[in-house]
Amino acid sequence: MLYCISMTGAAVAGSDASLVTSLKRGDTAAFEEILRRYERKVFSLARSLTRNDSDAEDALQETFLSVYAKIRSFKEESSLSTWIYRIAANAALMKIRSRRTREEKTVSIDDYMPKYDKSGHRVAAVPDWPPRGDDVLVRRELAGFLRDSIRALEPEYRTVFILRDQEELSNEEVARILRLSVPAVKSRLHRARLFLRERIKRYWYGTEGRP
Amino acid sequence: MQTCQDIIDLLSEYLDGQLPAARRGELEDHLALCTACLEFMQSLRETQGRVRDLRCDDMPAEVHDRLRTFLDKTTKGLRA
To answer: Which of A39, B14, B33, B63 is the most exposed place for a label (fewest CB within 10 A)?
Structure first.
């Protein structure tokens, strides 16, 4: 049985690094503790990325199977959390790619970027966002629209955006997880935010589909 | 003088509190004079708030149980 109490019991309350050391020695209680610490985070990330509970669950299972099977090859050049997030993001992206070819449509982010005149000044109606109601019904409807909008982001933007603005990791952590430069993370994050801002604007003006 | 485009390119870093003081000052000077950019910044900030509200950490108990069952089966024969 995998999930027994550790014979030594030493690893359970330890740091992530000590859990890794214990698991490499075959201490299954260390794996149980890693699961306890990270399963919700991984599921949250996978669900945010895939926007599909079944795909998220598959990604969750694949992630922890990989953690168990590959722990000996984990060289600890990054933290355990970065390594797990990287495995989880890749598993979720595989699901997205598979689903995308079947049914999921993304939109071109360029169509949602701000417009400027030749001198670099904004070309926009004022007010940019119209006055609007903000009751519970509107909030609920907008939340659904926003979820759809995040799903419509191209995966390279969606992944950065979810890790930064929903999982609230730092630019540096996201860069390590996705093996990107920090400037690339910042650029993708900014464009994703601009995209969502513009989507909401069009939603308020009724020019973009409502959920 | 900075253009609206220069300012908007910096807004994420500004809202994240990551702009150096000198650049932050230039940006705020522009926002004080440019209603369009000020409204843009406010709407970008509101967007971030609405996105944060979407976050959901709940994991159904059955997902937790199926994960254990899956790992119990698939890790047999594997040694960590």
So the answer is: B33
Q: A122 — phi, psi (to 5°)?
A: -70, 140
Q: How many residues does chain A have?
A: 211
Of A65, A121, A127, the CB nearest to B4: A121
**pLDDT value for A4:** 35
Helices A80-102, A16-24: crossing angle, 10 deg rounding: 80
pLDDT-derived band of residue A103, with 50, 70 and 90 as boundaries? Answer: low
How much is the pLDDT for A9? 45
Does A31 contact B51 at a Cβ distance shorter than 8 Å? no
Choose the closest CB to B79 out of A26, A40, A60: A26
- Which of B59, B62, B76, B79 would best serve as a mutation to test chain A binding (most A beta carbons within 10 A)? B59
Q: Is A23 on the interface with B (CB under 8 A)?
A: yes
Rounded Cα distance between A177 and A207, Å, is 36
Say if residue B57 is exposed, middle or buried (CB neighbours under 10 Å; 0-12, 13-18, 19+).
exposed
Of A47, A72, A193, the CB nearest to B12: A193
**Pairwise CA distance, residues A191 & A199, whole Å:** 12
The pLDDT, as a whole number, for residue B57 is: 66
Query: What does pTM read for this prediction?
Result: 0.81
The DSSP 8-state label assigned to residue B19 in this structure reads S
A152-179 b/e (C-beta count within 10 Å ≥ 16 → b): bbbbebbbbbbbbbbbebebebbbbbbe
Q: Residues, chain B, total?
A: 80
A209 or B26: whose pLDDT is higher?
Answer: B26
Residue contact A128–B40, C-beta within 8 A: yes
